[in-house]
Amino acid sequence: AFRCAMPRLGERLLIKLSRDPSAPDLPGGTDKYTVANALDFHRKTIPEFLQELVGRTVLDFGCGPGWQAVAMSQAGASRVIGVDIRREWLDHARELARREGMADRVVFEMGSTHLRDGTFDVVLSSNSFEHFDDPETILEEMTRLVRPGGALWITFAEPWYSPYGSHMSFFTKLPWVNLLFSEETVMRVRSRYRSDGARRYEEVESGLNRMTLARFERIIGRSGLDVELLRFHPTKGLPFVSKVPVVRELLVSAVSCKLRRR
């Protein structure tokens, strides 16, 4: 009886720490994107990011609603292709490109398997790598599509053990929800706000692959790519925490990485 009561107790507690289901989603960082600010993180964390776009062919892998793809086109990329698997995001991205007058320079397509090997000077994955269900295979696909000597840029926010690594901040601002509550409890409370029937983090909309910093390092270490830049960005700029193995998992909120195909 005690074991049965504990999940329900946790569920009641998390409900009290969450928004009313009738209220709108709590705002998140991606909700604040505009074409003007969509590349701010990349510009600040990857040296010469904007300069390396000029005149280049770029693939935005997991482009979402298209903010970064359109912004890169405006920044001087000669051609940008954005790929994703969610049709509603691709529709939004195409409308955004049309509205910004960039539809002749940036296009959006479903998936990447039809694209030829070595087509792109640069392949970017922005705020997607923590969502891919098979990130190792995705990195192989990104590598296939970039030309020899070309660059792969990966950035993502909220690794798994970071304060908001559960990506549940649309209904609660409580940090480390995935550490404080069982997966069953979080999914039961989440069902008050989403009707997709997810029972595991991997099943939520867009998916979550529980990407830790250590796992990311292993993936890029086995990729055969040259690591030119790897930066872990601490929560609220806390000093030193990105250097301490266990602490960094809890207190690093974003990653930026630049790889190069040999």
What is the element layout, followed by pairings?
Blueprint: H1 2-16, H2 40-45, H3 49-53, E1 57-61, H4 67-74, E2 79-84, H5 87-99, E3 106-110, E4 120-126, H6 135-145, E5 146-157, H7 177-180, H8 183-190, H9 213-221, E6 226-234, H10 245-251, E7 252-260
Helix pairs in contact: 1-8
Brief summary of the model shown:
With 262 residues, the protein is an alpha/beta fold. It has helices at 2-16, 40-45, 49-53, 67-74, 87-99, 135-145, 177-180, 183-190, 213-221, 245-251; strands at residues 57-61, 79-84, 106-110, 120-126, 146-157, 226-234, 252-260.
| Main sheet: strands, sense, barrel | 7 strands, mixed
Report the sheet-strand fraction.
15-25%
Structural class: alpha/beta
User: What's the tally of helices?
Assistant: 10
Question: How far do the termini sit from each other?
Answer: 59 Å
**Main sheet strand line-up:** 3-2-1-4-5-7-6
Q: How confident is the prediction overall: mean pLDDT?
A: 94
Radius of gyration, CA atoms, in whole angstroms:
19 Å
Overall, the morphology is globular
Q: Uncertain runs with pLDDT below 50, 5 residues or more? A: 1-5
Relative helix content: 25-40%
Spell the H/E element sequence.
HHHEHEHEEHEHHHEHE
The number of E-state strands comes to 7
